[in-house]
Amino acid sequence: MARKPKAPPRIGFVSLGCPKALVDSERILTRLRAEGYEVSPSYEGADLVVVNTCGFIDAAVLESLDAIGEALDRNGKVVVTGCLGARRETILERHPTVLGVTGPQAYAEVMETVHAHAPKPHDPYLDLVPAQGIRLTPRHYAYLKISEGCNHRCSFCIIPSLRGDLASRGIEEVMQEAERLVKAGVRELLVISQDTSAYGADLRYRTEFWQGQPLQTRFLDLARALGGLGAWVRLHYVYPYPHVDDVIPLMAAGQVLPYLDIPFQHASPRILRLMRRPAHAEDTLARIRRWRETCPDLTLRSTFITGFPGETEADFQMLLDWLEEAQLDRVGCFTYSPVAGAAANELPDPVEPEVAEERQARFMEAAARISAAKLAAKIGRRMRVLVDEVGPGGAVARGPGDAPEIDGVVRIAEPGAGKPGDFLDVVITGSDAYDLEAMRS
Ligand code: SF4
Question: Do β-strands 167-168 and 147-148 pair in parallel, antiparallel, or remain unpaired?
Answer without folding.
Answer: antiparallel
